[in-house]
Design brief:
By secondary structure, this protein is an alpha/beta fold. The protein folds into two domains: 2-165, no CATH class; 167-198, no CATH class. The protein is 16% helix and 28% strand. It has an eight-stranded mixed beta sheet with strand order 3-4-5-6-2-7-1-8.
Length: 198
């Protein structure tokens, strides 16, 4: 959160944050850290939370309704659900799904809720409901490299931050952080070399 806060304070916005360790798409760690740090004007695109979408449909929710509910955090590596108190900005089709939701909250923040993992590559993808890319200082996407095409190579975002949580996440590149069992790592690359290859 500190690196992003510093970039915002310097006016080096927008900041594109690539969270590539969250392959299920439901992790709430960044949302909670940014909220605790008081970082505003953030759009989170996207957080996987099919239960949230089911609940909205079951209650007959409509755009403009107040929203108080839990989002994401349903896998062990995703953390705990983030409780959001805001407004339902959009509920309908998007990103190729029959239903997604946009919830606005806090100081100019928004979260896009999808039924499955979604990798946002371009700022234009955030034009959903009343959202406009230029309304945000920080974009959080579930991507490591692909988002650079739309945010970095185009010059749209002067600040790029790639987040890697050093924990046993499904998509981690920190292979030594994974909890291995029933295997002798000294016999496997990149931790060791099998005796037959020495």
């Amino acid at each position: 959160a500190r690196i992003v806060s510093d970039a915002v304070a310097r006016g080096a916005v927008p900041v594109a944050v690539g969270d590539h360790s969250d392959r299920p798409g439901d992790a709430t760690h960044i949302l909670k850290a940014f909220r605790a740090a008081g970082i505003g004007r953030v759009v989170y695109g996207t957080i996987t939370s099919p239960a949230t979408l089911d609940s909205l449909e079951a209650t007959g929710a409509q755009s403009g309704d107040s929203f108080v509910g839990a989002i994401g955090g349903f896998t062990p590596s995703g953390g705990t659900p983030a409780v959001i108190d805001g407004q339902l900005d959009y509920l309908g089709a998007g990103f190729g799904y029959d239903r997604i939701a946009v919830v606005t909250f806090g100081e100019g923040n928004a979260v896009i809720v999808t039924p499955a993992y979604e990798q946002v590559l371009y700022p234009e993808a955030f034009r959903i409901g009343s959202l406009e890319p230029d309304d945000f200082d920080v974009f959080v996407v579930k991507s490591r490299v692909h988002f650079r095409r739309g945010f970095d190579e185009t010059g749209y975002a002067p600040s790029i931050v790639v987040v890697e949580a050093p924990e046993p996440f499904v998509g981690t590149t920190f292979l030594d952080a994974l909890p291995y069992q029933n295997v002798d790592l000294s016999q496997l690359y990149p931790y060791g070399m099998p005796a037959s290859r020495r």
